[in-house]
C-alpha cells in the first residue's frame, strides 16, 4: 500500500467521485432535506406524520377486514415468506444438484428467473396466476378448485406476487450456495463419514456452519431485493386491488410522480433507505474493517 | 449568370423554408384511433396550406413533462389534447393562450366548455367526444334467446337472471379491466341513474361527500348486482370484448368506440339503465400553450379542429360524437346515429375521474377493482374516496 | 443408498419441471393464436403454430419492440463501458493507495450500493430537467454510470486485493510512473474481472425499468422494458402479443447469460465473497 499523491487521486478517483457526488450523494441529501419541507415550503415534521400515520403505510384495520395492511406491513410479509423460502430452497437444491447428472442444466433453468428483467418477471407472475391462462389454475383445477385470477383479489394478490417472486429469485441463492459448496474441502466430509455421521448430521453440523459467510451475503442481498421491489408489482397489479399489494417503492413513485407531492415521497424514500441500510449493516460493518 | 441563378434559387429556398411553418399537434391516439384522426388533419393541410405534424403522447406522461417544459418557457406542441382539469391548472399559472376570440361558446352543446373556462375566458376548446351510453348487446344474441330491452329496474334484474341461466354464459355482464376506466365508466352510469346528474356534478365539484346517503344509495344498487354475481371477474377489456362477442357474456358496458371494434356493427344494440337522465360525454379538449412559435396559425388550427368543419370530418370516421351544434345526422355512420339519438333528451355530463384527476383518479380506478371482487367493502371504499378528494 | 439416489433424482427433475412450466406457458401463448388459448394453453387441441405475435410485437405501430431493443442498446452499451472504465480505476486506487479519509469514503461507497433508486428519483429528475436532459439518452446514461460506479468499484477493489502487487512494484523500481503501471501492466491482467463486471452491468442496465420510467417519455424513445407494461391495457393487445414481446425482451440477457455463463457466475460469486 503506497501513499497517494494528488495526481493519482485526480486521475484514478476523481471522475468516479464527481459522478457519484452529482448523481447519487447530492440527490440523496436533497431528498432527505425535502422530506422535512411541506407543500408551502415551510420546514416541518408534517410529512412524516402524514405518511407514517396514513392508511397507505400502515392499516391495522386490515387485520379484521382483510388486505390491504399498508406498504410497510406488505414489505414485511414479503420478507417473512420470501426470505426463508428462497434461502433454504436454494441451499437444499444446491446440495441435491451437486450429486445429480445434468445438475448444471437444472441450475441454469432455475437461474433464468434472475437473468430476465424484473418487468418481464412481473408479467410472468401475473400470467401464472391468470384466471383464464394461468398454470396455477390448471394445477389447482386438477384438485377441483375453480379458476380465478389470484392477483385480482385483495386476500391473495400480495401472496401471489410473493410466491411468484420465490420462483424468480431462488436461482440467486442456488448459484451462490453451489459455489460455496465447492469451497468446502472433501476431507471434511470424508472425516465425518468415517466417524459414522449420516448425511443429515453432516448437513447440519458441517455444511451449514461452514457456509455462514455465504449465508450472510445471500440473506442481505435477498433482504435488499425484497425491500426495493418495484417492477414486479408495477406491471402485475400496480399495487392493487385497492392497494392490497402496494409496496414502499411503488408508494414513493405514486406520491412523487402521480400525486406530485415531493415531501411525502421523500419521507417514503428516507424510510426505505433507513430499512435498506439497517439490513445491510453486516455488509457495511464487514467492509469498513477492511483496508 | 450561373452565380445569379444560384443566388436566386438560394433566396427562394430560404424564403420557402422561413415561411413554411409546421404545426405540431399532440394527442394520445394511436393505432386504429390515430387512423381515424389523421384524415381530419389532412383536410386542414389541404384547405389552409399549413403543414401539420401529429405526435403521440399519453396523457399521464404529458402531465409529468409539460409542467417542466412550460416552466422553461418551451413547449412540445402547438395544439395539445389534454384532460380539462390539467388545462385549467396550467391556465391558472399563465401558460395557456386565451382562445375566446376564435371559439364561440354559443355554437357548442350547453355546458361543454365550462371546464376549460376561467374568469369568463376560454382557455381550451372541446373536440369530439365519445359517449358512454350504456350496456351493449348483440341483437342476434337477444333474438336467439328471446330477450328484450328492459324498461324498468325490475325488468333489468329479470333480464340478468335470464341471461345467467343460459348455458355457456360466464356471467350476464362482462367486466373490463385495464388501467381502470372500464369499471369507472359503468360505476358513473349507476351514480348518474340513481343519484341524478346534479349529484354527479356535485361529486366532481367536491360539494358532496362520497359517504353521503344519496351517493351510497346509488352504489348499493351497483353492489347488489355485484353480490349476486351478475358481473364477471374483471378481465383485460379487449380480451373480454372478444369473449362477449363470442357469447360468453350477454351485456358489456362500453363507450361508443366499440362500434369500430367489432366485426359487424349492425348487430350492435345498446340501452341505458332504465330511468337514466344523463350520459357521460367524454369529450376531448385541446389547448394552445403560450410558448408556441405560431400562435395565429395555432388558433386557426384549433378553430378548424374544434369547429363545425373539423368535428364533422371526425364524426364521419365513426365512433365519435360532436360537441358542436348543427352537425348533420347524415354525417354519422348508421350505428353512431343511434348513439347520437340516445343523447337527445338527456344531459351530457363530464367524465368524473378525468375532471377531478390527480391522485383521486388513480385511487378511484384502483378502489373500484377492489369493490368489484369484494362488494361488501363498500364503506371502506367510499371512505377512501373522501380521503383522496383533498 | 440406491433408493436414496433415485429419490434425489425424482425430486430434482420434478423441481426442474416446476421451474420450466411458466416458460413453457409463455412460449405456447406466444406461438399459438389467442382463440385456442382462451381456455388454457395446456389444451393441445387444436394446435396451430404461427409467429404472427412476434411480428406484431416487433413492428407494433406504437410500441414497436424493434425500436425498443435498438433504443435499449443505445443506452446499455455506453452505460456498461463508461462505469467499467471509471470504476476500475477507482477500485484500483482504493486497493493500492493510502490517503486521508479512505475509510470514510469506503463506507460511503458501501452505503450508496444499498440505496434504493427512489432515494435519488425526484432531485435527479429536476436536475436533468434543468440541464435539458430529460427524455434524452445522455441523461439516462449518466444516471446508470453513476449508479454502477459504487458496486463496480467495490467489485474491482476486491479483485485487485487478490492480485499480488509485486509485479507493479518491480515495474516502479524500473522507473515506470503509476499510470503507466496501471495501464500497461495491471489492466491486461484485469480483463477477466472486467468481463464479469461488464456482463453483470449489461444485464442490470438492460433490465432497468425505474430510471427509464422517470427519464424517457417520447414514444419513439422508449426502451424495451418500458414497452412491456404499455402493452397491458392502454393499447389494443392480447396475451399472445404480450408473451411474444416478453420473450423477445428477455432473450437478450438470457443469451448473454448462456454464452458468457462462466463470467456471469464468477461475477456473482466474486461480488459475494470477500
How many domains of chain C, as an integer? 2
The share of residues in helices of chain C is over 70%
Mind telling me which CATH architecture of the largest domain in chain B this is? Answer: 3-Layer(aba) Sandwich
Q: Count of DSSP helices of chain B?
A: 16
Largest interface: A-C, 97 and 94 residues
Looking at this structure, what is the CATH superfamily of the largest domain in chain C?
A: MetI-like
The CATH topology of the largest domain in chain C comes to MetI-like fold
- The percentage of residues in β strands of chain B lies in 15-25%
Mean pLDDT reading of chain C:
85
N-to-C span of chain C: 37 Å
Largest sheet of chain C: none
H-E order of chain C:
HHHHEHHHHHHHHH
List unreliable stretches of 5+ residues of chain C.
233-237
- What is the name of the CATH superfamily of the largest domain in chain B? Periplasmic binding protein-like II
State the low-pLDDT regions of chain B, or none. Answer: none
What structural class is derived from the secondary structure elements of chain C? mainly alpha
Which term fits the overall shape of chain B? globular
Please characterize this protein's 3D structure.
The complex is a heterotrimer of chains A (291), B (390) and C (274). With 291 residues, chain A is mainly alpha-helical. Chain A has one domain (43-289): MetI-like fold. Chain A contains 15 helices and 1 strand; from the N terminus they run βααααααααααααααα. Chain A has helices at residues 6-34, 46-53, 62-65, 71-99, 103-115, 118-128, 135-141, 154-182, 186-194, 199-210, 212-228, 231-236, 248-258, 262-279, 281-289; one strand at 2-3. The longest helix of chain A is centred in the first third of the chain and has 29 residues, at 6-34. Chain B is of the alpha/beta class and 390 residues long. Chain B folds into 2 domains: 2-130 and 282-341, Periplasmic binding protein-like II (D-Maltodextrin-Binding Protein, domain 2), CATH 3.40.190.10; 132-281 and 348-388, Periplasmic binding protein-like II (D-Maltodextrin-Binding Protein, domain 2, 3-Layer(aba) Sandwich). Helix content of chain B is 48%, strand content 16%. The relative contact order of chain B is 0.17. The longest helix of chain C is centred in the first third of the chain and has 32 residues, at 65-96. Chain C has 13 helices and 1 strand. Mean pLDDT of chain C is 85; it is low at 233-237. In chain C, α5 (102-114) crosses α7 and α7 (137-162) packs across α9 (178-207). Chain C folds into 2 domains: 2-50, no CATH class; 62-272, MetI-like fold (Orthogonal Bundle). Chains A and C meet through β1, α1, α4, α5 and α6 of A and α1, α4, β1, α5 and α6 of C. β1 of chain A pairs parallel with β1 of chain C, so a sheet runs across the interface.
Amino acid at each position: 500500500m503506497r501513499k497517494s499523491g494528488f495526481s493519482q487521486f485526480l486521475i484514478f478517483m476523481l471522475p468516479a467521485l464527481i459522478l457519484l457526488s452529482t448523481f447519487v450523494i447530492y440527490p440523496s441529501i436533497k431528498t432527505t432535506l425535502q422530506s422535512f419541507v411541506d407543500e408551502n415550503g415551510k420546514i416541518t415534521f408534517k410529512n412524516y406524520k402524514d405518511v407514517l400515520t396514513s392508511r397507505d403505510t400502515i392499516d391495522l384495520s386490515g387485520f379484521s377486514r382483510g388486505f390491504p395492511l399498508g406498504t410497510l406491513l406488505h414489505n414485511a410479509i414479503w420478507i417473512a415468506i420470501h426470505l426463508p423460502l428462497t434461502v433454504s430452497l436454494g441451499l437444499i437444491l444446491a446440495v441435491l444438484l451437486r450429486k445429480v447428472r445434468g445438475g448444471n442444466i437444472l441450475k441454469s433453468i432455475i437461474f433464468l428467473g434472475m437473468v430476465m428483467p424484473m418487468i418481464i418477471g412481473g408479467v410472468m407472475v401475473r400470467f401464472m396466476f391468470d384466471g383464464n391462462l394461468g398454470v396455477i389454475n390448471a394445477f389447482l383445477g386438477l384438485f377441483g378448485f375453480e379458476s380465478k385470477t389470484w392477483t385480482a383479489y385483495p386476500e391473495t394478490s400480495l401472496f401471489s406476487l410473493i410466491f411468484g417472486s420465490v420462483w424468480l429469485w431462488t436461482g440467486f441463492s442456488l448459484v451462490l450456495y453451489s459455489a460455496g459448496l465447492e469451497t468446502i474441502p472433501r476431507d471434511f466430509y470424508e472425516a465425518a463419514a468415517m466417524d459414522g455421521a449420516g448425511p443429515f448430521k453432516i448437513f447440519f453440523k458441517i455444511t451449514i456452519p461452514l457456509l455462514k459467510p455465504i449465508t450472510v451475503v445471500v440473506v442481505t442481498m435477498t433482504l435488499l431485493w425484497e425491500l426495493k421491489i418495484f417492477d414486479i408489482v408495477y406491471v402485475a397489479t400496480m399495487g392493487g386491488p385497492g392497494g392490497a399489494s402496494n409496496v414502499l417503492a411503488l408508494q414513493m413513485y405514486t406520491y412523487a410522480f402521480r400525486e406530485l407531492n415531493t415531501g411525502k415521497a421523500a419521507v417514503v424514500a428516507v424510510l426505505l433507505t433507513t430499512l435498506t441500510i439497517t439490513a445491510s449493516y453486516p455488509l457495511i460493518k464487514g467492509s469498513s474493517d477492511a483496508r | 449568370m450561373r452565380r445569379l441563378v444560384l443566388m436566386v434559387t438560394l433566396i427562394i429556398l430560404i424564403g420557402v423554408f422561413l415561411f413554411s411553418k409546421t404545426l405540431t399537434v399532440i394527442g394520445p391516439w394511436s393505432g386504429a384511433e390515430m387512423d381515424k384522426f389523421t384524415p381530419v388533419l389532412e383536410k386542414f393541410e389541404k384547405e389552409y396550406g399549413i403543414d401539420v405534424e401529429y405526435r403521440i403522447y399519453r396523457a399521464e406522461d404529458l402531465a409529468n413533462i409539460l409542467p417542466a417544459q412550460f416552466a422553461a418557457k418551451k413547449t412540445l406542441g402547438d395544439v395539445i389534447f389534454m384532460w380539462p382539469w390539467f388545462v385549467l391548472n396550467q391556465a391558472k399559472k399563465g401558460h395557456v393562450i386565451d382562445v375566446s376570440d376564435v371559439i364561440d361558446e354559443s355554437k357548442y352543446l350547453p355546458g361543454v366548455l365550462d371546464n376549460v373556462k376561467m374568469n369568463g375566458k376560454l382557455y381550451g376548446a372541446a373536440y369530439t367526444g365519445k359517449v358512454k351510453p350504456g350496456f351493449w348487446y348483440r341483437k342476434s344474441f337477444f333474438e336467439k334467446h328471446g330477450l328484450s330491452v328492459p324498461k324498468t329496474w325490475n325488468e333489468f334484474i329479470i333480464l340478468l337472471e335470464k341471461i345467467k341461466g343460459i348455458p355457456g354464459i360466464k356471467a350476464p355482464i362482462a367486466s373490463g379491466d385495464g388501467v381502470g376506466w372500464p369499471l369507472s365508466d359503468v360505476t358513473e352510469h349507476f351514480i348518474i341513474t340513481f343519484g341524478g346528474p346534479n349529484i354527479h356534478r356535485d361529486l366532481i365539484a367536491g360539494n358532496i361527500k362520497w359517504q353521503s346517503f344519496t351517493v351510497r344509495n346509488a352504489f348499493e344498487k351497483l353492489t347488489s348486482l355485484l353480490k349476486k354475481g351478475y358481473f364477471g371477474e374483471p378481465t383485460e377489456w379487449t380480451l373480454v370484448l372478444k369473449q362477449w362477442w363470442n357469447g360468453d357474456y350477454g351485456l358489456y358496458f362500453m363507450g361508443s368506440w366499440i362500434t369500430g371494434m367489432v366485426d359487424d356493427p349492425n348487430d350492435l344494440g345498446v340501452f341505458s339503465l332504465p330511468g337514466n337522465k344523463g350520459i357521460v360525454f367524454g369529450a376531448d379538449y385541446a389547448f394552445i400553450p403560450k410558448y408556441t412559435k405560431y400562435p395565429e396559425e395555432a388558433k386557426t388550427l384549433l378553430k378548424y379542429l374544434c369547429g363545425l368543419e373539423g368535428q364533422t370530418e371526425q364524426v364521419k370516421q365513426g365512433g365519435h360524437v360532436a360537441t358542436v351544434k348543427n352537425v348533420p345526422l347524415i354525417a354519422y355512420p348508421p350505428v353512431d346515429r343511434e348513439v347520437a339519438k340516445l343523447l337527445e333528451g338527456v344531459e351530457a355530463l363530464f367524465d368524473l375521474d378525468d375532471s377531478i384527476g390527480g391522485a383521486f383518479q388513480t385511487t378511484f380506478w384502483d378502489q373500484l377493482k377492489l369493490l368489484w371482487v369484494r362488494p361488501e367493502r363498500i364503506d371502506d371504499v367510499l371512505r377512501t374516496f373522501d380521503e383522496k378528494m383533498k | 443408498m440406491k433408493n436414496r439416489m433415485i429419490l434425489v433424482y425424482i425430486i430434482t427433475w420434478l423441481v426442474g419441471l416446476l421451474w420450466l412450466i411458466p416458460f413453457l406457458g409463455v412460449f405456447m401463448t406466444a406461438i399459438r393464436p389467442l382463440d385456442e388459448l382462451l381456455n388454457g394453453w395446456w389444451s393441445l387441441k387444436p394446435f396451430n403454430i404461427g409467429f404472427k405475435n412476434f411480428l406484431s410485437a416487433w413492428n407494433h405501430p406504437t410500441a414497436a419492440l424493434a425500436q425498443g431493443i435498438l433504443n435499449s442498446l443505445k443506452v446499455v452499451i455506453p452505460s456498461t463501458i463508461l462505469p467499467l472504465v471509471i470504476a476500475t480505476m477507482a477500485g484500483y486506487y482504493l486497493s493500492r493507495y493510502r490517503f486521508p479519509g479512505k475509510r470514510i469514503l469506503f463506507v460511503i461507497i458501501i452505503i450508496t450500493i444499498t440505496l434504493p433508486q427512489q432515494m435519488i428519483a425526484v432531485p435527479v429528475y429536476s436536475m436533468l430537467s434543468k440541464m435539458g436532459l430529460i427524455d434524452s439518452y445522455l441523461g439516462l446514461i449518466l444516471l446508470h454510470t453513476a449508479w454502477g460506479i459504487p458496486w463496480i468499484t467495490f467489485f474491482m477493489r476486491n479483485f485487485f486485493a487478490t492480485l499480488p502487487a509485486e509485479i507493479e512494484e518491480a515495474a516502479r523500481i524500473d522507473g515506470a510512473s503509476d499510470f503507466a503501471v496501471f495501464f500497461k501492466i495491471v489492466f491486461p491482467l484485469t480483463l477477466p474481472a472486467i468481463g464479469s463486471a461488464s456482463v453483470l452491468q449489461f444485464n442490470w442496465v438492460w433490465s432497468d425499468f425505474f430510471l427509464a420510467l422517470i427519464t424517457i417519455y417520447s414514444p419513439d424513445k422508449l426502451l424495451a422494458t418500458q414497452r412491456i407494461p404499455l402493452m397491458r391495457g392502454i393499447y389494443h393487445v392480447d396475451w399472445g402479443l404480450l408473451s411474444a414481446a416478453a420473450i423477445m425482451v428477455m432473450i437478450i440477457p438470457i443469451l448473454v447469460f448462456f454464452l458468457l455463463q462462466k463470467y456471469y457466475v464468477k461475477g456473482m460469486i466474486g461480488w459475494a465473497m470477500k
